[in-house]
Amino acid sequence: MKQPKYVKSQFVLTRGAYSRISNIDRLLALLIHKLRKQLSNRRNKFQNKTANQFVDYRFTSLSAKRDLTAVLGKNYRKTILEAEALGLINIFRSKVNIESYSQRKKASFSKKYTVNDEIWNQIKNREFIIIYLQIPNPALTHKYGSHKPSSKVKDKFLIIKNNLDQLIIADEVFSDPDFDYLESNSYVRSFFTKKYLISDGDPDAMDEEKTGRIYHDVICMKKALRKYIRHVGGKPLLIIDASAMNPILLASEIEDWKERYRWLRICMSGNFYTDLVGVDKIEKNEWKTPFMEAMSSKDLKHNEKVQQIRTVIQRDFPSLHAALQKIHKSGVTVARKLGKIETKIFRFTFKNESRFHVSMHDGLLISKEDLVYFNNAIQDAAKIIIGYPLLLKVETLAGDVIGEGAKIHARTTCVNKDYDTSMSLKQIAA
């Protein structure tokens, strides 16, 4: 079937914007999209600072090729000037014109823009509406989008690339409301072009000294869009990953065996974050981030959840508390230390594996037929590296949990209990 030249994509506009979808609407949608994301990132960054320390930075940049030309067309300058004349946007112009799209005097435009005060206040107050724009089909051409992968993939990434090459993505992804041209295009388009972004350590920097984690298009794309991923051979796909991974890995730092036993029993309960502090199960997701913050050396006395976790550990798990203090003094963060252990289990163990698999940080994307094999391989690696198995769960690409469980051996961890799956691995793989 012939690919359509344009596809529908979701953008966000504030209330009161132009009722018809014109190029001005498109320009506002681009600006609002970036400003909302920038504002959210800055709020997270400054969440522990006072109001006076938070700088309400409201200017953002737009790329001529990736943003303006792709969505507004080549004559985007006319739209920018029209929007400015109407008072809808403000343009930051440098006196020396350092930041410009072109060095030609007549065509020079600043890279920094913002919307007017009314729209900006609506953005800050989360008052917005969704519109759908026809944008160039990302699957059709290289001309649009921001994804510019390296022309060469290093040898250590060849196995990863070969496995990613076995994946395709359904065209229906472009009609999904979660598909966003600015955020999703590069990762989705890679399935059509077979040119992937693969990096070590950070999504934007080759730095395996941090954790050794691998970032690639499947990991970086929105989880809501992963359900459209298919295996080129038609094999059903599943994700097998670890539950309560960081807490379970922390057990390897506990020297007192009785304390390790008690800690692992909580980890393997399936409700670690809630059982540890004795709160209602409905609050489970609210405790994940505070837990890792509690493991850091940061002074977070103002955070009630962090203090509650630290109090429980210091009171009930003194050996773990001492181990955390030792890690802090070493200059290595707990997250980095645990990340390297995770990488040994889920990445290095399978770096020469010939069966289809894609690293998902603390899990693997695999074919359904290999579920039992990889479950056993992960658990074997865990026993060798940390001395005990993990609590694994099986999910579909849509995020539906099929089954979870683990078997902890008294000989290695002092925990003598079986945790059964809602469905056995053989049933899931059947």
Write the layout of secondary structure elements.
Blueprint: E1 6-14, H1 23-45, E2 60-61, H2 64-72, H3 76-85, E3 89-92, E4 112-115, H4 117-124, E5 128-136, H5 158-164, E6 167-169, H6 181-193, E7 199-202, E8 205-206, E9 214-215, H7 217-220, E10 229-231, E11 237-242, H8 245-250, H9 257-267, H10 272-277, H11 288-295, H12 304-316, H13 318-330, H14 334-346, E12 357-359, E13 363-367, H15 371-385, E14 392-395, E15 401-408, H16 410-413, E16 417-419, H17 425-429
Antiparallel strand pairs: 1-5, 2-4, 3-4, 6-10, 7-8, 7-9, 11-13, 11-14, 12-13, 14-15, 15-16
Helix pairs in contact: 1-2, 11-12, 12-13, 14-15
Account of the 3D structure:
This protein is of the alpha+beta class. The protein folds into 4 domains: 1-26 and 61-94 and 118-136, no CATH class; 164-235, no CATH class; 247-336, no CATH class; 338-413, no CATH class. The protein has helices at residues 23-45, 64-72, 76-85, 117-124, 158-164, 181-193, 217-220, 245-250, 257-267, 272-277, 288-295, 304-316, 318-330, 334-346, 371-385, 410-413, 425-429, and strands spanning 6-14, 60-61, 89-92, 112-115, 128-136, 167-169, 199-202, 205-206, 214-215, 229-231, 237-242, 357-359, 363-367, 392-395, 401-408, 417-419. The strands form 5 sheets. It has a 6-stranded antiparallel beta sheet. Strand 7 (199-202) and strand 8 (205-206) form a beta hairpin. Helix 1 runs antiparallel to helix 2 (64-72), helix 12 packs across helix 13 (318-330) and helix 14 (334-346) crosses helix 15. It is globular, with a radius of gyration of 25 Å. Residues 96-107, 142-149, 202-209 and 406-422 have low confidence and may be disordered.
